[in-house]
């Protein structure tokens, strides 16, 4: 009878492994791609990305994919298309419905082809709809919008998936997805520990080409997106082809994702296959490329400058690069009393005092209150 | 998952290397094997190596995996080697390195990129004007055929007054050849294997039948490679589409006709110019998780009432009572194999799992695991939701179980009352001259997960497969 113990059966239990949903945020900023044209033209990058998408779909029958373009003036869906979403993605077993055209090309696995066709078509539409005026006015990319789209898609799919599979994670997913105002973080942590393998495994991959100075003006929405991912335990992976975005390093660091800046853009596909393909389950077994020197700098709330040292509102923790006008916090409106901020803090030399040896009395334990430095 | 993958994997492993070489010529086969047979980590390795120009030194691969996951790594590499996907070579500076073998690598790349015109993924039928068969009809057909086969084995169609499906002779012969049924005095008797078979989930059943089919195909002179690659092709087709038959070889056409009897493919008439894959075919390479939800729900569940999310219809309570919302005679007779049924209502049967009923089942050759996996895969969505919800609140690392743990434990205990011996086929290594010589291969065997038993005192150990251990010993002797 001793051979029946808990550890044995749970090993044997056939736990179905949940599929994973990969959402790719693809930076299509025309300015940045034009600069990259020598080493990695956009067409090559898209082709590589499609092979990577196919590889992801090949890993599991039920794996899902979503692609969002973060363009210069807007964020747009590349796959699944928004217009005919119900007919293309809604099928719950992953079968893809036919859309009008029946091409005769049959040397390709059909789900692969559908993704490929839609992505290229939507990308072309997006490029065609971009006017030169749009480009002149704006050199950055709508990362915050794309990240939010990706998050809402993940949230929707997670809930739908949990519903279909009758898992208990339904309420949890809904509660967690309900917004950052939801339960305490410990709750999210506990749930995920118990049924990590049972819910849809989502992750976000940001393929970024724009520099950091451009995205600084979106600092607040991007950080909010990152914190939402952190709470939902969605890793954000960043594949940085050019430039070096400050906030994305923080994103990876906060969500335990993979950050990679490509030293050789031509090897884009190999980087994708090696570092970004493994899903959360496999990552537990792999040594991931990690970044040690994360740039934790923040952007100020007044001028969107990236600052090393700034002023922080003591009430709402907003960051400013210089004292706000009228000493009034721009975010919460608190009147702040700013002393002589330029002065060096007064250092009080430590008093030399002999330690009294009192045997086991409580007096030894109470620390002396250190005097506060005067203004 | 492990249970459902093992059988096709075992069969494939037994094939000679040249068969693999021929099999991997087809992109669809490479894709299906990649998707279905490999563990997660192995998939990562293959994909990482696929587009590398030079072989990856073994040391680098070892560095890539966390040191605690050595076992998983060795297991992944061992499966890859057994399926002839990964091979070891030496690079220019004589460093041992891994590479993906060639017909597999190029085929998988082709599947991903889709560059060459190989028609490996079927040819759409493009006859305009003809009415397409709807997905619902295909599901109906598949269910009817498959339940027919099951019903024939269990013998339900006789008493339930269900329309007797005329199963073809080939199907009956195949079931007999696979020792799933025996025919005595023109009466069909289900065997022990058969009982195990009917309790499995549909995906496993289909694979079981297909492997039997491939084995028997060899006996009647069909090329097993051709049949196998046709099966993998079927698995990559799309549901609800019709495909041209004229590109198929004669053997493949023959296979097609046989598969139609099982409901795996559908054709209007045997002479039709096109065929439709059913859900049984298109989900072949999916994990059981993708299958046991909406699809098999409509297949195994009561006819006409498919729908709703989740597929299960069985509720088990902690007091061993069982409620099954079904009126399918097949399901009822399956449940009655291990349950004392009490009441039967339209659309509901209730009963109790007792020591006696489980013992009765075990005596006719059903294992506790089979009963539990049957209950698990047909659990009512309400049961899933309820128990998973409870389990998350108290257990730490243990995955929540859908069935009440008291019941599953008790079923296992009832089995243990009878079984006290377990046989494992394998190989014994003995007569080592020194302790050190014994320890190294023994440790290696444990790492690759083939070690079953060892005795340090007698310097012996027992493994399930010996090839790699033997290779390990050889390489040590050379040093």
General description of the model:
The complex is a heterodimer of chains A (375) and B (479). Chain A has 375 residues and is of the alpha/beta class. Chain A has two domains: 16-296, 3-Layer(aba) Sandwich (Rossmann fold); 299-343, no CATH class. Chain A is built from 14 helices and ten strands. Chain A has a six-stranded mixed sheet with strand order 3-2-1-4-5-6, with helices on both faces. In chain A, strands 7-8 form a two-stranded antiparallel ribbon. Chain A has a two-stranded antiparallel ribbon with strand order 9-10. Chain A is globular. By secondary structure, chain B is α+β, with helices and mostly antiparallel strands. Chain B folds into four domains: 2-113, Arc Repressor Mutant, subunit A; 135-282, no CATH class; 312-418, no CATH class; 427-478, Alpha-Beta Plaits. Helices cover 52% and strands 12% of the residues of chain B. Chain B has helices spanning 2-13, 17-23, 27-37, 40-50, 58-64, 70-82, 102-113, 135-154, 157-160, 169-177, 192-199, 202-219, 224-235, 250-262, 279-282, 288-291, 294-300, 329-335, 355-363, 368-377, 381-394, 405-418, 435-447, 467-478, and strands at residues 56-57, 86-90, 96-100, 181-184, 187-190, 243-244, 265-266, 274-277, 314-316, 321-324, 340-345, 348-352, 427-429, 451-455, 460-463. In chain B, a hairpin with a 4-residue loop joins strand 14 and strand 15 (460-463). The longest helix of chain B has 20 residues, at 135-154. Chain B is globular, with a radius of gyration of 25 Å. In chain B, 44% of the residues are buried. At the A-B interface, helix 1, helix 3, helix 5, helix 8 and helix 9 of A face helix 1, helix 3, helix 4, helix 7 and helix 16 of B.
């Amino acid at each position: 009878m001793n051979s029946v113990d808990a550890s044995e059966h749970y090993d044997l239990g056939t736990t179905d492994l949940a599929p994973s949903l990969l959402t790719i945020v693809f930076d299509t900023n025309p300015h940045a791609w034009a600069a990259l044209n020598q080493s990695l033209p956009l067409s090559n990058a898209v082709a590589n990305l499609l092979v990577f998408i196919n590889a992801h779909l090949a890993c599991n029958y039920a794996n899902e994919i979503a692609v969002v373009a973060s363009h210069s003036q807007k964020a747009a869906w590349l796959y699944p298309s928004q217009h005919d979403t119900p007919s293309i993605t809604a099928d719950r077993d992953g079968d893809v419905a036919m859309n009008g055209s029946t091409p005769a090309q049959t040397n390709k696995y059909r789900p692969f082809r559908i993704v490929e066709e839609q992505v290229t078509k939507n990308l072309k539409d997006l490029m065609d709809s971009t006017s030169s005026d749009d480009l002149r006015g704006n050199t950055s990319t709508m990362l915050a919008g794309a990240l939010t789209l990706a998050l809402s898609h993940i949230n929707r799919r997670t809930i739908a998936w949990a519903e279909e599979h009758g898992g208990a994670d339904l309420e949890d997913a809904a509660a967690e997805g309900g917004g950052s105002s939801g339960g305490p973080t410990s709750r999210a942590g506990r749930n995920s520990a118990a049924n990590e393998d049972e819910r849809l495994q989502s992750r976000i991959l940001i393929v970024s080409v724009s520099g950091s100075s451009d995205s600084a003006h979106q600092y607040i929405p991007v950080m909010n997106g990152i914190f939402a991912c952190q709470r939902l335990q969605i890793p954000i992976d960043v594949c940085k082809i050019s430039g070096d975005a400050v906030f994305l390093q923080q994103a990876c660091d906060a969500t335990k994702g993979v950050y990679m800046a490509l030293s050789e853009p031509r090897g884009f596909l190999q980087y994708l296959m090696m570092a970004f393909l493994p899903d959360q389950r496999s990552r537990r077994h792999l040594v991931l490329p990690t970044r040690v020197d994360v740039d934790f700098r923040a952007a100020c709330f007044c001028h969107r400058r990236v600052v090393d040292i700034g002023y922080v509102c003591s009430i709402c923790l907003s960051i400013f690069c210089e004292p706000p006008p009228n000493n009034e916090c721009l975010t919460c409106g608190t009147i702040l009393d700013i002393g002589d901020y330029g002065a060096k803090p007064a250092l009080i030399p430590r008093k030399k005092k002999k330690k009294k040896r009192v045997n086991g009395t409580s007096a030894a334990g109470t620390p002396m209150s250190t005097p506060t430095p005067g203004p | 998952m492990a249970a459902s993958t093992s059988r096709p994997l075992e069969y494939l492993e037994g094939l000679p290397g040249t068969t693999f070489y021929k099999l991997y010529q087809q992109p669809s086969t490479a894709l299906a094997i990649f998707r279905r047979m490999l563990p997660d980590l192995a998939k990562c390795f293959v994909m990482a190596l696929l587009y590398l120009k030079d072989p990856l030194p073994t040391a680098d691969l070892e560095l890539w995996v966390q040191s605690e996951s050595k076992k998983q790594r060795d297991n992944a590499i061992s499966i890859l080697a057994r399926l002839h996907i990964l091979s070891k070579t030496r690079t220019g500076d004589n460093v041992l390195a891994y590479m993906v073998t060639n017909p597999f690598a190029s085929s998988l790349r082709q599947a991903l990129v889709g560059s060459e015109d190989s028609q490996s993924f079927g040819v759409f039928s493009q006859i305009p004007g003809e009415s397409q068969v709807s997905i619902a009809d295909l599901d109906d057909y598949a269910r009817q055929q498959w339940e027919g086969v099951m019903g024939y084995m269990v013998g339900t169609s006789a008493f339930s007054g269900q329309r007797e499906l005329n199963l073809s002779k080939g199907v009956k012969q195949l079931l007999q050849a696979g020792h799933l049924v025996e025919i005595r005095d023109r009466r069909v008797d289900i065997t022990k294997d058969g009982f195990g078979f009917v309790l499995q989930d549909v995906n496993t059943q289909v694979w079981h039948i297909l492997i039997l089919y491939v084995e028997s195909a060899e006996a009647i002179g069909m090329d097993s490679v051709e049949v196998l690659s046709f099966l993998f092709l079927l698995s990559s087709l799309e549901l609800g589409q019709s495909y041209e038959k004229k590109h198929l070889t004669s053997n493949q056409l023959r296979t097609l006709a046989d598969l139609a009897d099982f409901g795996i493919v559908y054709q209007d008439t045997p002479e039709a110019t096109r065929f439709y894959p059913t859900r049984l075919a298109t989900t072949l390479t999916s994990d059981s998780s993708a299958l046991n939800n909406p699809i098999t729900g409509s297949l195994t569940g009561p006819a006409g009432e498919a729908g709703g999310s989740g597929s299960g219809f069985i509720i088990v309570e902690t007091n061993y009572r069982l409620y099954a919302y079904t009126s399918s005679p097949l399901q009822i007779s399956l449940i009655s194999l291990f349950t004392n049924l009490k009441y039967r209502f339209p659309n509901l049967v209730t009963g109790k799992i007792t020591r006696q009923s489980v013992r009765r089942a075990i005596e006719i050759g059903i294992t506790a695991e089979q009963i539990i996996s049957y209950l698990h895969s047909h659990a009512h969505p309400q049961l899933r939701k309820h128990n998973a919800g409870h389990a998350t609140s108290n257990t730490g690392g243990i995955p929540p179980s859908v069935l009440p743990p008291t019941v599953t434990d008790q079923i296992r205990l009832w089995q243990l009352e009878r079984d006290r011996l377990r046989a494992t086929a394998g190989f014994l290594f003995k007569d080592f001259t020194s302790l050190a010589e014994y320890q190294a291969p023994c440790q290696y065997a444990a790492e690759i997960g083939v070690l079953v038993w060892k005795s340090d005192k007698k310097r012996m150990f027992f493994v399930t497969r010996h090839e790699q251990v033997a290779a390990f010993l050889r390489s040590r002797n050379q040093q």
